[in-house]
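Entry 14. Structure prediction run on the chain below.
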Amino acid sequence: MRCVVTDIIPETADTQTFHLGTYFPYKSGQAISLLIDGDPKKRFYSISSSPTEKDHIAITIKAGDREKKVYDSVFTLKKGTSVEIAGPFGSFTLPEKLEGAYYFLAGGSGVTPFRAMVKYILDTHPEIETWLLQSARTPEDLLFKEEFLAWATYPSFHYVPTFTRWSDTDAKGETGRIGETLLRKHLLEMPGTFFLCGPKEFVKEMEHVLGSLQVPAERIRRDQW
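Output returned:
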């Protein structure tokens, strides 16, 4: 279908959220494809909005140092631009029957589908215990930081950012990578389901960490690139 870009929100220096003026049924965690006029490449992005936000579909796009084509194409979009999308795609989603707890471990922009999942849980089952551990280089690289901090007023939602290239003790958050020590510090019990999303190396490392914590494989879901 074709739709119009209705809003563009700068998230960090190299990441933007695009609101698309359409809505269709989907599950939090799924993705859509994006095709821009004049650019033959079809790109796939996780939906960062929750199915409970029915006035738009949002995708959050990061352009890394080597992705000049993303800057030259996607990041030139303006409000009112018409684009072509298709979807939803993917099975990296919450189960039909929600029963916690849920632990979301995100590396970099891997937090994008978790923004949709957490928002959906808070809107529909706010009593379910939910944890988000978000790894970023510095506080300036945290996606959706203000939203997550606001949602942390829910007693059931626990937000733990950690920084791999930042050691300022005044910053709110942990330092270092997500590992066994950090998980044991914040997760006194681990009876629920773990969702992992981020670069392939990050997901592989998280699987190793969870294995050392005796988390059964059937309680681990993953998405990587």
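The domain at 102-224 is CATH 3.40.50.80 (Rossmann fold).
Filed with the rest of this week's runs.
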